[in-house]
Amino acid sequence: MKGISGSVKIIGDEYAAGYCCGLSMVDNGTARRFKTMMDEEDMTILETEDGLTLNVSHTKSETSDATIVETTFINDSEKDVTLEYMTSFMLEGVEADKIYRMLSFWSAEGKLKVDSIYDLNMEKSWAGHGCRIEKFGNVGSMPVRKYFPFLALENSKTGKFTGIMLYAPNSWQIELVVRKEKTLTVAGGIADRDFGHWTKNIEGGSSFTAPRAIVAEGDSLLDVCDKLVKATEINPSPVDDHMGITFNEYCTTWGNPTIGNLKKIADKLEGKGIQYLVMDSGWYLEGDSQWWENRGDWIINTDRFPNGLKELSDYVREKGMIPGIWFEPEVVSFKAHNYEEQKEHVLHRDGVPITVEGCRFWDMEDPWVKDFLKEKVIDTLKDNGFGYIKVDYNDTVGIGCDGDESYGENLRNKLAGTLEFFNRMREEIPELVIENCSSGGHRLEGTFMEHATMASFSDAHETKSLPIIAANLQRVVRPEQNQIWSVMRKEDSDDRIFYSMCATFLGRMGLSGDIYDLSDHQWNLIDEGISFYNKVSHIIKDGKTTVLEADTKSYAEPTGGQLVVRTLGDESLVIYHRFENSVSMEEFARVNNLQIPEGVVDIKYGAADRDFSAMAMIIK
Prior knowledge:
Blueprint: E1 4-5, E2 8-10, H1 29-33, E3 35-39, E4 43-47, E5 52-60, E6 67-75, E7 81-94, E8 98-105, E9 108-116, E10 132-138, E11 146-147, E12 150-155, E13 160-166, E14 172-178, E15 184-190, H2 193-196, E16 200-202, E17 206-209, E18 213-218, H3 221-230, E19 246-248, H4 250-253, H5 259-269, E20 276-279, H6 310-318, E21 322-327, E22 331-333, H7 338-341, E23 348-349, E24 352-353, E25 359-361, H8 367-384, E26 388-391, H9 407-428, E27 433-436, H10 446-450, E28 454-456, H11 466-472, E29 482-488, H12 494-504, E30 508-513, H13 520-542, E31 544-550, E32 561-568, E33 571-578, H14 585-591, E34 601-606, E35 614-619
Parallel strand pairs: 19-20, 19-30, 20-21, 21-26, 26-27, 27-28, 28-29, 29-30
Antiparallel strand pairs: 1-7, 2-7, 3-4, 4-5, 5-6, 6-17, 6-18, 7-15, 7-16, 8-9, 8-11, 8-12, 10-14, 12-13, 13-18, 14-15, 22-25, 23-24, 31-32, 32-33, 33-35, 34-35
C-alpha cells in the first residue's frame, strides 16, 4: 500500500507551528528536513542531508488483506540524537468525514464512539493557518484504558473506510491534524514527550524501530475491522486445536479455592466437554487475607492444599481436563513478605517504589526478578503439571519509571520484559496455554494477543451488558481468542441461561458459577448450549461478522436488542439478544434495515421471545 509514511522529532529542532506546540509534533522542524527518496508499494524511504533515515515498510499481511507497517529510524550521522516523537505510521491527504474509536473502561470494554469532523471541530480554518488537532491514546502499562489503540475513518461520499490498529503494549497515541488542506493527516505510535513522557537517545550508527501498525481499507467498518483482527499473528498452544471450552472457578469460590471445592467442581464437569479447568486467585493466601493482599510471594497455602498443588492437577487430568492456575506475576502486594524485603527490585519513580492501592510492580528487566519468576511461576507450572496459566494484571504503572532514559522509554523496556517472560513460559512449556487478562480487558492489544492463546474479554461476569461487550470486541479481537464469561446460578431461569450461553457464541466459551447446585433441567440447557457451540465453533473461528447492531446507548441498563451475524461459506451464525422494551428479531431487523440471511434454519438454541432472552441459530 503506497502513501504510508513516517515522522520523527529530534530535541533541538523546531517544534510544529500553527499553535501546535504541546499538542502535536506532526509538522516539526525535523520532519521538514526529510526528503522522500523512495515510495514503492512495500517501502518508503526518507532521508536528511546529515545522515538520518526513516525506513517505512508496508507489506501485505500473510493472514489478511491488511498492510503491516513498521518504521525504523537510522542514525548514520556522526553525533547522537535524542528523539522526542516518532510515528509507527503516517497517512497524509486522507479524505474522511467520520471518525470511529473504541472506548474502554473496567467492565465496559469496546463501546463504539462515532464523531464527525464537525463534531470534533476539525474543519480547515479560513486561512489554513491554525492547526485543528484531535489526539487520544493511553499512558501507562494498561494499553486498553479509555481507548483501544484503534481508529477507523469513513469517507461518506465514496463509502470507503480506512482502519488502523497499533500494536503498542505501552503508552501510545493516535492523532488527526488538519491545517492547510481540507484533508486529514493521521499519525500514531509511541506516546510522545508531551503526552507520554518519552524520549529516546539514538547513538550515531544505531537505529530504533517503532511498534508495528496494521492498516486496512474496505467497504464498511466491519470489513476493515475483520481485516485488522485477522492480521493478528497468534501462536496458540498445540493442544488448543478445537476452540476448547474453559471453566474458571472464580465466580464459584470468589477467590477462595481449596482442594475440596476444586475436586467437587471437577467431579461435576467430568464428561461435559470442558477442556480446561482453571483455578483462579487465592490458592497462595496467608491467614485471613483477601486474594489481592498476598500477591507476590506465591507460597502455596497448605491449609487449602495440604498435599500441594500436584494433587489438584493430577485429579483434574484424571477427569479428562487440562488443569490451569491463576498468577499475577508482575506485582507484589502489601501483605506479601517481598513487598518490603525486595523493594529494590520493584519499579521506582522519583527514587521511591511506585505504589498503587497497596500494590507494587516488579522490574521485569531485573535479573533477580527473572530468576524469582522462573522459580515461582514457571517451575510451579512444570513441577505440578499445569497446562494453562491465566496471567492477570490489575493496575497500571502510570507515566513511567526511573531508569537510564525517559519515563516513557523506561516503561516501554519494562513491558518488553513482560513479553519476554511470556515467551520464556512457552519456551520452557511448549504446550502451555496462556490466557491474557488485565482486570478483564485492559490488555486486549495486538502485541499481548500475539503472545497469548486467548484472553479474558472483561470482568463483566454476570451483567446485562455481557453480550454487548462480547459483540463489540469482535471489531478489535479475534473471536477465537476472546473468552466470554457465562456464569450459572441455581436461581437462573431458562431465559437467563439462554442469555448467558448465547453470549459465548460471540467468542470463546468460558463457564463459571455454582454448577453443583443446578437442577437436571438447567444442566440439560447448558449441555445443549455446549453442543451448539461445538457445532458453530468453526464459524466463530474463521467466519466474518457481517451484521453487528445494537440499538441501546446504555451498557448498564440496555434497551432494545442486538443482532449479530457471522458467516463462513454457506453457513451463517445468527445471534439475537433482547434487552428491555425489546421486539422480535424480525422486527428489530426491519426497523434497523438489517438483512437476516436467507436459507434453512439448520440448528437453533434458545428462545428470544421476551425481554432479556436470547436465541442463536445456524442458517444454511
